[in-house]
Amino acid sequence: MGRYFPGGLPVDSLLLNDWTLDPSILTGILGLAVVYTVTARADERPSRWRLTAWTLGLASLVFALMSPLDALSDHTLLTAHMIQHLFLLLVIPTFLLIGAPDRLLTLLGDLARLRFCRWLCMPVGIFLFATVVLWVWHVPTFYEAALHDNLLHVFEHLGYLVTATLYWWPVLRPGNYPWPIAEPIQIFYLFGGALTSSMVGALITFSSAVLYPTYIHPTVFAGFRSALGMTVFDDQTIGGLLMWTAGAVWCFVAAMIVFGRWFGREADDNASSTIELDLPPKGVSS
C-alpha cells in the first residue's frame, strides 16, 4: 500500500508536480549556457567531455534549485536542505569547472588578478572566505532568516556556489589557476576543507536540541516526513551526517586524485632523469 496525504493524493504525485520556475534561476542558467557557447568557440577544439560536464552542471543546478527538492528543503526536511547544499558546494562546482572552456577560465583569471578580487581569489583568502560562508549560513539565526526571506536565500545560495567554485578551481583546473599550488599543498588544502565541513555536520548531528524550528512543524508536504517514518530529530541527525560524511568523502577522493597526479609526475621526472644519466656525454663515442 502506498502512502497518501490527506485528500487522497499520493506522496509522489504532489512532489513531482512541485517545480519552481523562478525567473532569476532560469536567467542564470541561460546566462551560463550563453557564456559556454561564446567562450567555447575561442578554444581550438572544444571537448565533447567538457560540454557534457557543463551540461551536467546546469542540470544539477536545475535539480538543486527548481525541482521538488527545493520545496522540501525550505519547508519540510533538513535532510533535503543538506542535499541541496551539497549540490551547491560540491557537485555543481565540480561539473562546471571540469566543463569550463579554457578561454572562460583565462578571462576569470584576468579578473581574479585585479586588486579588489585578488585577496578573495588567492588560495588562503578563498579557503577562509568559503569557510566563513559555510559556517555563517548554518548558524540557526541566519539559516532561519534565509528560509523566510527570498532575497536573503538567493544571496545564500549564490554565496555557496561562488565560493565553492573558487575553492575547487586550484584543484580541478590548476593549469588555468592564476596562483598554482603544489600537489602536497593541495592535499592539505583539501584536508582543511574536509575538516571544516565535517565540523559543521558533527555539530548538527550531535545537537540535543532542534536547531532549525522551521522543521518542527512543516507547512508544506506536512505528512511527508511522517510518511517516511522520521521524527524531527531523525531528520536533523541524518542531515548532519550527510554534511559530515559527504563533504569529507568528496575531499578525500579529490586528495587521492591529486596524490595520483603528483606521484605520476614524480615518476615521469625520475624516469627522464634516469634516461639522461644513461646517455653518453656529447662528443663521446659509445
Description:
The chain is an all-alpha fold. It has one domain (16-275). 73% of the residues lie in helices and 0% in strands. The protein has 13 helices and no strands. Helix 7 packs across helix 8.
Instruction: Extract low-pLDDT stretches.
Output: none
Cα-based radius of gyration, to the nearest Å: 23 Å
> What's the structural domain tally?
1
Mean pLDDT: 86
The coarse overall form would be globular
The largest β sheet comes out as: none
User: How many strands?
Assistant: 0
Share of β-strand residues = under 5%
As a percent range, the share of helical residues equals over 70%
H and E order: HHHHHHHHHHHHH
Core attributes:
0% strand; 13 helices; mainly alpha; 286 residues
Mind sketching the topology for me?
Elements: H1 11-16, H2 23-40, H3 48-66, H4 68-75, H5 78-99, H6 102-112, H7 115-121, H8 123-136, H9 140-147, H10 150-172, H11 183-205, H12 224-227, H13 232-278
Helix pairs in contact: 2-3, 3-5, 4-5, 5-10, 5-13, 7-8, 8-10, 8-11, 11-13
Q: Brief overview, please?
A:
It is built from 13 helices and no strands. The protein is mostly helical and 286 residues long.
